[in-house]
Amino acid sequence: MAMEMVISFPGGARVDARYGDFVIKTDQPPEDGGEGSAPSPFVLFLASLGTCAGIYVLSFCQQRGLPTEGLRIRQSMTWDPQVHRVTQVKLDIDLPADFPAKYQNALIKAAQLCTVKRHLENPPHFEIETHIG
Asked: 49 near 75, Cβ under 8 Å?
């Protein structure tokens, strides 16, 4: 199944992606030549990790009728300035006080099912071409 996203350049350092009816806007921070009007593509990438895990965590809880009031995920990243990359992503799942302890390990396993994470573990092949006209 082929999927398509169209990338456009509305001005300045802004780069948008259209997928179906959605437009995902990005910009660079002022220190990188942008206006800071939207998250940078890398910030969206990082957010996709936490929000993807969040979908699995939320679904796990909802399917079992578990409490979600106060449920949240705190995501922290370790940046290596030598290689200019994030070298570790940590997700801390904060649970409600009345969350049953017997589900904690299963909840971690649910978060590990994140599709974005799984794609990083088995990355797709990239192919880049140009087309004139």
From this structure: yes
In angstroms, how far is CA 26 from the centroid of its own chain? 14
pLDDT in tens, 44-73: 999 999 999 999 999 999 999 999 999 999
The DSSP bridge partners found for residue 91 are 75
Q: What are phi and psi of 49, to 5 degrees?
A: -65, -50
The CATH number of 42-125, from 3.30.300.20, 3.50.50.60, 2.40.128.20, 2.40.40.10, is 3.30.300.20
Mind listing the pLDDT tens digit for each residue in 94-108? 999 999 999 999 999
* DSSP secondary structure of the chain: -----EEEEEETTEEEEEETTEEEEE---GGGTS--SS--HHHHHHHHHHHHHHHHHHHHHHHHT---TT-EEEEEEEEETTTTEEEEEEEEEEPPTT--GGGHHHHHHHHTT-HHHHHHHSPPPP-------
